[in-house]
Design brief:
mainly beta; 6-stranded mixed β-sheet; 4 helices; 5% helix; 46% strand; globular; disordered N terminus; binds CU-O-CU linkage; binds copper (II) ion
Length: 433
């Protein structure tokens, strides 16, 4: 095919063409925001947000393009923005003290990076995140496929829970509660979905992009009213669509489903003894020309596959927490006996090395372990390659092996995404040279 580039290059005179005007950066500000957590008409909640809104604006960019964000901190405390799940340039990862300085009150920071993979991602504060994220400092980041699957609606659905007074809407101020940190984290008393669109038609084919933005809550979810398949986890396409069953979504995890609307699309929280509705996307009217094609697989991401024989085998024992004999303080949780950031990395890798890391949960609580800058394969019991994710949920008393190709140079955090656990010791870092 004759592209514009070849056409120009084959022209007799190689004119110096002006570069395309650089797109102006997106302005993203962090500051106070009023959130409507309680139903409309009931009191709003004083929170933090991006561009005066919580959740922050949905950022959308096409795969392979560059996202430029001028970030301005209008809060009276420091912060930084992390682009969760994106395999980006280390300097843009948004971790104060590791990849950049803290962005102080009134300061700005320019983020600019290319997005290599299409999918559902999100951005959030990475400073005092147990409090700043709990107060609402996050938003969705959607990377569109070059050739997106055909759907009638593409809807982002954030999930969160909050600890609030359900009469006044006021958020409880106990963000650093050590008792919470030593247990399952600061769980909310009020949960709901925040969909980017609240109405569809019966017969519509919809893509739902669920993002768990909660700091501690593992949502047990059933989606009703949609004949759907799972097409991606943590942004990354599945090799082929999988039947949608009830699922768990740990903090920071995402799931993309594509399906056909048969009734109002209701999100049910499957508590042990009851089913709680977290919200509904209403079905209004009928789509007279429904799509009948089978639900397609998304275009596969181009990622390095782990070597059959790993270069390094490591194990990481999660320890501490309530009922495990450690004492409260900054070091409630530990990884291999070490609590919090260390001067030396947990491990160092030469670029391209494959590591198999055994995550051993020797505690009484589940942990959702997140690696920055990379995705990894969960390994099956027999060592086969399972799902490809950036956050893996490891149940108490169980072990999960992950295979990682460390091909992105830099210093990368590896931590529990129960943010109170992270704050009280469950974090470390690795280095890729
Ligand atoms: Cu989504 Cu280190 O975080
Ligand atoms: Cu944890």
């Amino acid at each position: 095919m004759l592209s514009r580039r070849t056409l120009l290059a084959s022209g007799a005179a190689m004119l110096a063409l002006p570069l395309p005007a650089r797109a102006a950066p997106i302005i993203l500000t962090a500051g106070p925001a009023q959130g409507q957590i309680l139903p409309d008409g009931e009191p709003a909640t004083a929170m933090l947000g991006f561009n005066n809104s919580t959740p922050g604006p949905e950022l959308r960019v096409k795969q392979g393009e560059t996202l430029s964000v001028r970030f301005e901190n209008r809060m009276d405390e420091g912060t930084a923005v992390h682009w969760h799940g994106i395999r980006l340039n280390n300097a843009m990862d948004g971790v104060p003290g590791v990849t950049q300085p803290l962005v102080g009150p009134g300061e700005t920071f320019d983020y600019e990076f290319t997005v290599p993979d299409a999918g559902t991602y999100w951005y959030h504060s990475h400073h005092q995140s147990w409090e700043q994220v709990a107060k609402g400092l996050y938003g969705p980041l959607i990377v569109d496929e070059v050739d997106p699957p055909e759907v009638d609606e593409d809807i982002t659905v954030l999930l969160d829970d909050w600890r609030i007074d359900v009469d006044t809407g006021e958020m409880m101020g106990d963000f650093g509660n050590m008792h919470d940190f030593a247990h399952g984290g600061r769980l909310g008393n009020y949960a709901k979905i925040m969909p980017s669109k609240t109405e569809v038609r019966v017969g519509d084919r919809v893509r739902l992009r669920l993002i768990n933005a909660a700091t501690a809550r593992i949502f047990p979810v059933r989606i009703e009213g949609l004949a759907a398949k799972v097409v991606a986890l943590d942004g990354m396409p599945l090799p082929s669509p999988r039947a949608l069953e009830d699922f768990f979504l740990a903090p920071a995890q995402r799931i993309d489903v594509i399906g056909d609307v048969v009734a109002p699309v209701t999100f049910v929280f499957l508590a042990r003894d009851q089913q709680v509705e977290m919200g509904t996307i209403e079905a209004v009217g009928q789509n007279d020309a429904p799509m009948n094609e089978p639900i397609p697989a998304l275009a596969q991401a181009t990622v390095a596959m782990p070597k059959a024989e790993p270069d390094q085998r490591l194990s990481m024992r999660m320890e501490g927490g309530a009922m495990a004999g450690r004492h409260a303080g900054d070091d409630i949780w530990a990884l291999n006996g070490w609590s919090g950031m260390s001067d030396v990395p947990f491990a160092s890798f030469r670029r391209g090395e494959t590591a198999v890391i055994e995550l051993i949960n020797d505690t009484r609580f589940p942990h959702g372990m997140h690696l920055h800058g990379h995705h990894f394969h969960e390994l099956d019991a027999d060592g086969g390659l399972g799902d490809y994710r950036d956050t893996t949920l490891v149940d108490p008393g169980s072990t999960r092996q992950i295979a990682v190709v460390f091909d992105n140079p830099g210093k990368w955090l590896l931590h529990c995404h129960m943010l109170g656990h992270q704050a009280s010791g469950m974090k470390t870092w690795v280095e890729v040279n």
